[in-house]
Amino acid sequence: MFWGLVKTLFAAKRPAVAVSDVGQLLAKAGAHRDKGQVLEAIEAFEAVLAIDPYNPVAMNDLAASLMILGREGEARLYFEKAALVDDTFVPAQVNYAASLSESYESARALEILQDARKLMPDAGYIDSAMARIKTSWGEAEEGRELFLSAWLKEFDDARFAENYLFNSCSVESVSSAHLYAEHAFWADTLPDIGLAPVRDGEERRSGRIRIGYLSPDMRQHSVRYFFRPLLEGHDRDRFEIYAYYESGAVDAQTELIRSRCDYFRHIPGLMDADFEKIVLDDDLDILVELAGHTSVNRTGYLRRRLARVQMTALGYPPTTGLSQIDYKVVDKHAAPEGTEGFYSERLLRLPNTFWCFNPLEPTPDPAPPPSVEKGYVTFGCYGNIGKVSVSMLASWREILERVPCSRLIIKSINFQDHSSREHFASRMVGAGIELARVDLVLPDQPAALFSSYAEIDLILDTFPFNGGTTSAFALWMGVPLVTLQGDILLSRMGSSMLREVGLQDLIADHLDDYVERAVALATDTQRLVDIRASMRTKLLASPLGNGQLYASQFEAACLVALESDSEVDFSDVEREVLPESVLVERAATVYRSGNYGAVTRIVRYCLNRYPKCLEAHVLLARVLEHQEGPQQGYDSLVAASQSMERPLDPQVALALARLQILLGLNVEAMNGIDSFVAPTEDAEKYALSLRVYQAVARARTAKPDTTVRSGEGFLSVLVHCDSDAKFAEISQGLKAILPPQSFELLRGRAVSRAVSYRQLLGQARSDLIVLLHEDVAILSPDFHRQAILAMERFDVVGPAGTRQLLSPLWFEVDEGAPSGALILPSGGGVDELCVYSSERYSEDIEALEGGLIVARRSAFAAVELDEGAEDVVCLAEVEWSFRASQAGLRLAAVPGLGVARRVFDMPRDDQWRRYAMTLAEKHARLRASKSRVVPQGVSIPLRSGLDAMLVLRTLYLTDQ
């Protein structure tokens, strides 16, 4: 491929550079960057590139530093260079993709991200970047799934969680109740951060009511059209106004907002603890957050309760999910009686409208409907195309068909990107809409935005996420809208505004009704004229457009909130909870990421709602085992099992047996295993675990047969090792395990491992060759006999392998699992036996794991080692075994060899990426991959090498 060619050419021209010099310079540059010394960091990264011009790390980090200074053009150039130099360096690929996306080349960006995801499948930020592109194309459902994937991979990253929550608002299949459940799940699985020491009402300082507003949008932003009218209308004799502004951007609107506040706190990038101190010192009566889960926000931090009353308003239509936020500002139309179950907050219902829209600047007067002059109706929809659901498109098709010669104008910032426009156009065609009657255009510049509504006769609102700012703009310019209302504020913003201006008949309750009302209004030209002429007057006479009226109602509601009891019983309000299966699946996904703290929170959340959830109890026991030890996990599961039906569910019984084995309760484990009954349909699912635990318990309860039986044969063990100390350790280990006079140990060094092996093969005395990686150890005294027996049946063997090699990672499989068994370090100083299959010999193996290979000398003559291969873990051996199987040699995985792989001795990422990509390019069927965590299979800690031998004998009948 082209990028691979460019990489090769660059590598050939790369000057010889001392790695230590580059490393020191990179470390220096990184230190400047981490201290916020951007200019110094840029100078240091440039110094790296002066001596190593093709260093992708330096290019990438230089580009990131340039972005901070706003030098975007230069930054994109370096991102692109870094990506071309090394198309397996994921940070550069993702940053390059981001720069392409920002340059409106999203299709190319998505291709790069998809390749990067193959290299780093566990990186949440890649999924998040892909999700942003999908949503910009209007594919909200696919975007939501990717945002969820990103969140579960990085569960404690607030950005990923909030992207998922916000995007869920636009997905038609997500019900109002489910949307609440998602927000509640987020809130209730956050880490506990305690409560702030807020003074109670009796201790507050005297004076006016102190009300604070928290937002990142106190600038030229849609929120300002609703926030400034409130500020302008506030009664300053009764209220003291505090503003906490999160964004670094300052413009004329910021200054206008500042001028209407008693205290304006500009806090971009401020640490949470420092923010808390400022707010507590201000001694607020009411804190109103205006962002929800949008943009930059501190919504999650409001769990600390920083004011006597906390509210959410204006910026985020759904619930925040937080019970610590006391009120959500709504109105009786947007959140009618009976909808309390969709919100975690109490509903502070204003009598007219939940917000007020007024530009507070000169705007054009409403123009007559364009259909009067043109003779045909023009429908319009402005805003984010991610809000346009499948049902909406179907309804729009019917509306256009029933209103002859009518047209539809869709204006969206998304259309800056050609791919976004093309994908949305394809969606419209798929819905049966005639594109010749549709204009997909960019929104107008701010100065022309209001006058652009003169092109539109009426707005077709979106569902389930109604238009907000765009609908308010339309009404201000006299343009009516037809809306479909749902259950919650998110899908009742349109109906709330229409009721306030007396246009209730434009509110639909179902899709057919939506079509009928749109067609009726579109064909009533006189009514369109009348609405246009009177709308502005109605708005200015209403709290919807009159800041003084709105502020008066808002302030009255604030007084009610201050006087109310903050503790309210919601026990009689029905609220949806995510299904048990969803909670378990999410907990299991987060468990695989190693975030045990988050798993514990999810599992406890699940058990609080589903106390009998077996999977949650088992997962909690595993987490406790990791965090506190097997006794705590066992105690937890035993306590939970007391109320479970007998016989115990297989997953519970096996989990108990495993914990009993860990605690040395082998007789109890045997009893449990012997009485184990698995449902017929699940027998295969539990078979391997059952066999492993049974073998371990029996091996440790039976009288041990420690006789070491050697095979009839001599082995030549070849090791490439530059370290004298490590080689001495290998030699001592082999002498302790292998029978005397049964092997010779030959050492190679100074050259590559493959060259060492070739040279040592010329010195070896035996026809049976063992390639032993320096980071692999033989632990079972049975090794010699099992190797000799296996070589009577096969040409090449190792302790584990795969029947289908998909990538340089021997264990990466699409279906099933790897074969064999390995002994791996658990990270706690104890080796674990990890079993992947139960066969004594797993035949038809396509590639072995490579740490240890036993083969006949003839195999190396038939298939030569690649002497140009780099010494990257065991990839050269994996690749050789793959070529051996392709050449017709018989490969097998022999778990009874008892081999330990020190997987923590891993190479640098750049070495791995380079060689993994080389292998993928050499063998067309292989895909590149970066994740290098060996799968655990069914695992159990071992006590010693002798214990390993006894367990393996019992499991694989290796003593027969």
From TrEMBL:
EC number annotated for this UniProt entry: 2.4.1.255
UniProt pathway: Protein modification; protein glycosylation
Limits of the O-GlcNAc transferase C-terminal domain: 204-355, 377-553
Signal peptide, first to last residue: none
Stored SMART domains: TPR
Annotated organism of origin: Pseudomonas nitroreducens
UniProt enzyme class: transferase
Protein name, as recorded: protein O-GlcNAc transferase
Recorded family membership: Belongs to the glycosyltransferase 41 family. O-GlcNAc transferase subfamily.
Keyword Ribonucleoprotein among UniProt keywords: no
Alphabetized InterPro entries for the sequence: Glycosyltr_41/O-GlcNAc_trsf (IPR051939), Nucleotide-diphossugar_trans (IPR029044), OGT/SEC/SPY_C (IPR029489), TPR-like_helical_dom_sf (IPR011990), TPR_rpt (IPR019734)
UniProt keyword annotations, A-Z: Glycosyltransferase, Repeat, TPR repeat, Transferase
Tree of life domain: Bacteria
Gene Ontology molecular function: protein O-acetylglucosaminyltransferase activity
